[in-house]
Amino acid sequence: MTAQIIDGKAFAADVRAKVATQVARLKEEHGITPGLAVVLVGEDPASQVYVRSKGKQTVEVGMNSYEHRLDADTSEADLLALIDQLNTDPAVHGILVQLPLPGHLNEDLVINAIDPAKDVDGFHISNVGLLGTGQKSMVPCTPLSCLMMLRAHHGSLSGLDAVVIGRSNIVGKPMAQLLLGDSCTVTIAHSRTKNLPDVVRRADIVVAAVGRPEMVPGDWIKEGATVIDVGINRIEKPEGGTRLVGDVDFASASLRAGAITPVPGGVGPMTIACLLANTLTACCRANGLAEPEGLTA
Ligand code: GUN
Where is the Tetrahydrofolate dehydrogenase/cyclohydrolase catalytic domain positioned along the sequence (predicted)? Predict the structure, then answer.
């Protein structure tokens, strides 16, 4: 079997188009423009690239983008004061504090200072608890991206065996909660899992989110399974230079999977699209309006 390629770029374009349509409707019918505030502390080059891309895409779908760039030595008190101000600003519906933060800032404290209703990353402890108990929450963008692609490919996920490789708070754990919410039988595998190849071989759905280049070989993949590769790893090419690869060995896995996300061009492009979807959702909730269909968990 040669797998169907799940095109994350096309998918993301579709999500952005849906968001843009809803944003235009909000403006026309209610005079409301969703606003996303992004806070960047310091000058981490990768974070700067992400923040620029988020700002650009926010404006492209018709939302307001508010960027706050703070010096690397900003005090915790000053950062918390800014978050407080954004929490009470009615023009701001979503707040994202770009991670990682410089070492002197307590990330948990900062994230939990964000109003949970504006926490478009879904990292606030209240949102974690709401998701874990199957209640309405803000859902982290990467697992939401994976869920949207899985639903689009399968329709119903009910009763499918899903293995999530990786137990991070940002991807692995919320991914498992979302799959459970869609009635999958879920296993969370990690570095101490015994017999990982056999665990993965049982899965109808494999979500790989460990950050280890090409660690899942094709012969771990059940024939016809759906493979979602969250990994983005830069490796050296034998001939010099570098390239991006996922956590799954794409060449061998695509000969056995029914469908697979490539790296790059799979989950990656979807994450900012889902951030915009979350901002729209937060704006609708804040204004007592119906949530956009197909853009939430
Ligand atoms: N840094 C890298 N990815 C993310 C993300 O999804 N959210 C935040 N807040 N910071 C990040």
Answer: 6-121
Judge whether 110 and 79 are in contact, CB under 8 Å: yes
Map tokens 């090419």 to a residue: 237
CATH superfamily of 33-115: Leucine Dehydrogenase, chain A, domain 1 (3.40.50.10860)
Predicted structure pTM score: 0.97
121 ligand 1 Cβ < 6 A: yes
- pLDDT single digits (tens) 10-29: 999 999 999 999 999 999 99
| Residue 14, Cβ density class (10 Å: 0-12 exposed, 13-18 middle, ≥19 buried) | middle
Architecture of domain 141-260: 3-Layer(aba) Sandwich (3.40)
* Tokens 């899942």 belong to residue: 216
Q: Is residue 257 within 8 Å of 226, Cβ to Cβ?
A: yes
Q: CB of 141 closer than 6 A to ligand 1?
A: yes
| Closest ligand 1 atom to Cα of 99 | 10
| 3 state SS of 250 | helix
